[in-house]
Structures are given as structure tokens and as C-alpha cells.
Amino acid sequence: MRMRLMLLGGGSALGQALIRLGAEEDIGFLAPRPPETGWDAASLTELLDDTRPDALINLAYYFDWFQAESVAESRLQTQERAVERLAELCQHHSIVLLQPSSYRVFDGSRVTAYSEKEEPVPLGLRGQALWRLEQSVRAICPRHVLLRFGWLLDDSREGLLGRFLQRAERDDALYLADDRRGNPTPVDDAARVILAVLKQLDCESPLWGTYHYGGHEAITSLSLGQAVLSEARHYRSNLVEDIAPQAHAARPDAADEPQHAVLACKKILHTFGIKPRAWRSGLPSLLDRFYRHG
After folding, report:
1. Are β-strands 55-58 and 96-102 bridged in parallel, bridged antiparallel, or unpaired?
2. In Å, what is the CA distance from 264 to each residue of 94, 195, 277, 286?
3. Of 170, 184, 216, 221, which alpha carbon lies 20 to 30 A from 159's?
4. pLDDT(136) > 90
């Protein structure tokens, strides 16, 4: 890798997966420790003025964007301003910006898979913030790659998967929507995709734009929960026996979570040659890490 790579959010679950995978291929990252209050416009300005990498992967707010149950509007606004400043700095210093985004930019009304050509209509505060953030990056920093991911699954205790597994040990009954669909995407797979994109950008291929990626085999959240429980029983015997189906409209997060969140991944395949990987194959190692660290 000729490019000097900077990774913001190296301590996040996806950041750690990216560092692990990069190390296997002798690819290293500058991964600066964030200030105590987190990255903001001022600290980002000082950082990039001093270091000036060739490419920057922004996972600084990974947990809030992809794993948190909810995020305060004021916090999202601060992050938006920071990303806008980051885009300005990348443009000023000729730094390639790889910015993750999410299926949340869509409202979930489309039954078929969303392509990159579909117009985003985000539902909740987080989806709206991600959409505004995408627009800032496009307008300010032409040399960018926006990667929209499906349902990201990681091994953090407080993340989407961790909360589910803790409820499975604690609660007598679990409910998940049997009419809500998406692409589960283990973080190791997401890291593989980011690294594959970086490798081609390292060859000076000007493949800027927006791309979708989600694990192979779209599934309902109910079926995903059942698959996770089946694998988790190798580690815990006290898990809830079964999950009851519930309509998407009856779920407490129905106003914020898109009912149909399946992403079409043809563009990233045709442009970068990145094939979707079966998410089921990533579950064993994901749960092994979760229970080993827990």
C-alpha cells in the first residue's frame, strides 16, 4: 500500500476489525487516539494539518451511527459539523475520504432492494443526520467514497447484537419483526470491503461515489434473531427458548427503523469486483469473540 492511511475510530469494533485484517496483509493505519471529548472540528483541523495522510477512513462516530439504541439530536449535530469540517480539510489537503453511511437514509417503503440511484428519504434523526452528512461530503470533497452498509453486527456488549444476546439471557420472551428485512453484515466482512476499496484507490483508480454493501441473503429480523440464538447456544444454555413474531408497525422503533432495508450490491461488484459474502459464515467467529471478551 503506497497511500498513508489514517483511521479515525480505530478503537471501535469496525476499526479493530479493519486493523486486524490490515495486519494480515501488512497494511498499517495511523490510528490517533481521540481527545477526551471526542473528535470535533478544532481537533480534526489540528490533526490533519499536522499529519496529512493520503486517505482517511472516518469511523470516529461508528457506535452512534451503527450500534447505539438512540443518539441525542445535539450529539448528532456536533458530529455533522465535525464531518463537514473533515470534508473541507480533506479537500484542502487532497486527502481521499472514505465515509461510511447506512441503509437508514431510506424510509423502508420500497419492497425491492434499494440501489444507489434511489432517492433517500430518511425516517428518524439518525437517518436524517446521515443523509445531510452524505450531502456535505459530496458537495465539499469530490474525492470521496461513501459506503452505505446494511445491518452491521459487531461483538460489542452495548451494540445491536450484544443487547439482543443479553436480553436472550435475561427475558422470558423475545419479540422481533417477521416483516422487517435487511442485509446482516458482520464487521469483519465490512472491514474486508473497506480494505478492498482502499486497495483499488491505492492504484489511483478514480472510483469516487456512493456504494452499497450488505451481507449475502436478505432476511427478516426474526430469522436473524433465530440464527443468532442457534449459534449462541454453543456458548450459553440459559437462553430464551424461542422468539415470537411481531409486526414491524408494533415494534417500539418502527418510527425510526426502515421496514425494508435491503441494499442492492451490484454497483460495488461491477466497480470494485467485491462480491457479497454470506453473513451466516461470519456468525461463529463473531459470537466467539463476543463471549470470549464478555
Report:
1. parallel
2. 31, 20, 13, 24
3. 216
4. yes
β-strands 174-177, 243-246: how paired? parallel
What pLDDT score does 205 carry? 79
CA atoms within 13 A on the CB side of 167: 15
pLDDT range class, residue 294, cuts 50, 70, 90: low
Strands (E), the chain: 5-8, 55-58, 96-102, 144-149, 151-153, 174-177, 181-182, 184-186, 209-213, 219-220, 243-246, 260-261
Residue indicated by cell numbers 436472550: 168
Q: Which residues pair with 137 in a beta bridge?
A: none
Cα dihedral across residues 246, 166, 277, 205: positive or negative: positive
- pLDDT bucket at 229, cuts 50 / 70 / 90: very high
Amino acid at 38: G
Mind listing the domains of the chain with CATH numbers? Answer: 5-293 (3.40.50.720)
In this structure, what C-alpha cell is assigned to residue 126?
A: 439518525
Compute CA distances 27 → 10, 14, 24, 289, whole Å.
14, 16, 8, 23
Band of residue 142 on the pLDDT scale cut at 50, 70, 90: very high
pLDDT tens, residue by residue, 61-87: 999 999 999 999 999 999 999 999 999
pLDDT of 242 reads 85
CA contacts within 13 A on the Cβ side of 12: 28
Q: What's the pTM?
A: 0.96
The residue to which cell 435475561 is assigned: 170
Q: How far apart are CA 215 and CA 117, in angstroms?
A: 20
